[in-house]
Amino acid sequence: MPELKKSDLVKNWLLGYSSETCYNYERLQALGNANAFIPIIRALYPKEKYAEEIQKYMVFFNTEPSYIGTVIHGITAAMEEKRANGEDITAEEIISVRSALMGPLAGVGDVVSQSIVYPILAGICIQLALAGNFAGPILFEIIYKVIMLTLGYNMYMMGYRQGKTAIINFLQSGKLNRILEMVSIVGLMVVGNMTVNNVKFSIPIEWTFTNELGVVKFNLQTGVFDALLPGMLPLGIVLGVWALLRKRVQPLTIVGLMFLVGIVYVAVSALLGVYA
Amino acid sequence: MVLQAILVALVTTCCTWWFSHTITRTWLYPIWAGFLVGIMMGKPLEGMMIAAAINLPYVGFITAGGSMPGNPMFAGPVGTALALVSGMDINAATTIGVVLGSVAVLSWNAYMSINSIWVHAADKYAAQGNLKMVRVCNYVPSFFVSLVLNGIPAFLIVMLGESFGEWLKTFPQWIMDAFSVIGGIMPALGIGMLLNYLGKRKILPFFFAGFFLTQFLNLSTMAVTVFGVIIAIIMYNYNSKSTEKVGV
Predict the structure, then answer these.
(1) Is A51 on the interface with B (CB under 8 A)?
(2) pTM of the entire structure?
(3) B70 chain-A contacts, CB cut-off 8 A
(4) Mean pLDDT of A98-121
């Protein structure tokens, strides 16, 4: 009766963090997964079966591998253990469970890691770092890793213990979507905060008039934009970029447009005699 | 200088060659990778501040399925090193980071394409049941690909950085002004991408809540996060109660 020890599971979980070491367009995390399952295969199968068993991991695979996607490895490890003990689980079944789960879990994992944990942490830590506080990068590193490893480990073990049925039921219950929406609310508020803190744009053009009251200075930025709505220009730029993205304009094209804005800004300043 | 350039080259190599996300997951982001470079170059404080500035345009950085709108893994360490050796100010560093990150998308694409070769090599070993060589294929060749694509360019840029700085000082004021304007609006790209990702119509008002709480009340990021969490919890409880009632 081959059995997986706790240490085999931990190795499998940790090696999963090397899923993207040989990241490539053809099969993305396939080779990394094969590498992660080496300890499982060694623990469960005799040498002459290695070739057969490892090859099922060499197929196209891509998910979010660090926060949430580890649950797939946990589920797979449990399936492998049953397969090695003679239960009727085919290689195709393992492959198809993995492929079915990788999409939805990539969606969840990417939202958690890339649009919540990273932006919130980066938003706070960048401000600390810009103010010359070493806590900025250090907190970023520590908190990011603590959240990643805690979630990653628990998701892996949950997958191993509860198996595929429980996970699929949870995904279908809709509970996850509600949790995600709530976390997105936090994310959105931080993004609003980031707009004020990070996007800098102003048009401080000034005209000087002479009339019966004397010399009057009129500043476009303080006199119009700030008076109407402080921060309206950065907000407008962000909403403009968003509108372009929704029209599927490539981010690199937007970078190009931003360079254009810089050049136009300088050209107008030059026309107004700033560099005279 | 040669030793520092080699260290920066190694950091830059590992920012793309993710040998284990338990370590390298945060190396994707300039705030950490650039800070490491700052320490290696003996200027942790300046390095940290420049790295943070380079990170700004990438606060909303999202990768999915290996496609990337920019390459902060290159821009972070190399931009920080370049700014440190050439004595650039923070605004110019942000823009240099964006330029480097945009050009280096090419090296990322090359990396992702070339690595397919090693998967085919691993196929052969897998068919023989040679697990050790499968492991070697996963870890070893991609390091050298990243070294050539990222490490060596990083080395050269650091070595030539000083003359680059001299060259930059000859630039007229208007070019530097244009760079600073571009550096100022560049974060809007990352923020726009996040909005695109998070901004379902139903919850979009929370973006404006975050914006105006900061604009009018000067709340810090931490304060906005705290209120965000409180609101989210209230909403979650409220929603689950109402769904229960519908369920009954």
Answers:
(1) yes
(2) 0.86
(3) 251-252, 255
(4) 85
3-class SS of residue B226: helix
- Burial class (CB within 10 angstroms; exposed 0-12, middle 13-18, buried 19+) of A250: exposed
Q: Quick one: B12 and B111 in the same domain?
A: yes
For all residues of chain B together, what is the average pLDDT? 89
Residues B119 and B133 in one domain: yes
Q: Do B123 and B233 share a domain, yes or no?
A: no
Rounded to 5°, the CA angle A110-A111-A117 comes to 100
Domains in chain B, number: 2
Q: What tens digit of pLDDT does each residue of A169-227 get? A: 877 787 777 877 888 888 899 889 889 988 889 988 888 888 887 888 888 888 888 88
Give residues with Cβ within 8 angstroms of A143, minimum separation 6: A121
* Selected residues 70-109 of chain A with any CB under 8 Å from a CB in chain B: 106
Residue/partner pairs of A256-262 with CB below 8 Å, 24 or more apart: A258/B182, A258/B185, A258/B186, A258/B188, A258/B189, A259/B182, A261/B181, A261/B182, A261/B185, A262/B178, A262/B179, A262/B181, A262/B182, A262/B185
Stretch (H or E) spanning A67: none
- Express each pLDDT in B38-93 by its tens digit: 999 999 999 999 999 999 878 777 776 666 778 999 999 999 999 999 888 887 78
Torsion angle (degrees, nearest 10) of CA B225, B210, A152, B21: -110
Tokens found for residue B184 = 């100022």
Please determine, for the modelled complex, whether the ipTM score is greater than 0.95: no
Set of chain A residues whose Cβ sits within 8 Å of the Cβ of B25: 17, 66, 144-145, 148
Nearest to B196 among A41, A127, A246 (CB): A246
Of the candidates A107, A113, A114, the one whose C-alpha atom is nearest the C-alpha of residue A177 is A107
- Residue B235: domain span: 200-248
A24 at the B interface (CB within 8 A)?
Answer: yes
Q: Are A254 and B204 in contact (CB under 8 A)?
A: no
Domain boundaries along the sequence of chain A: 6-105+142-176, 201-271
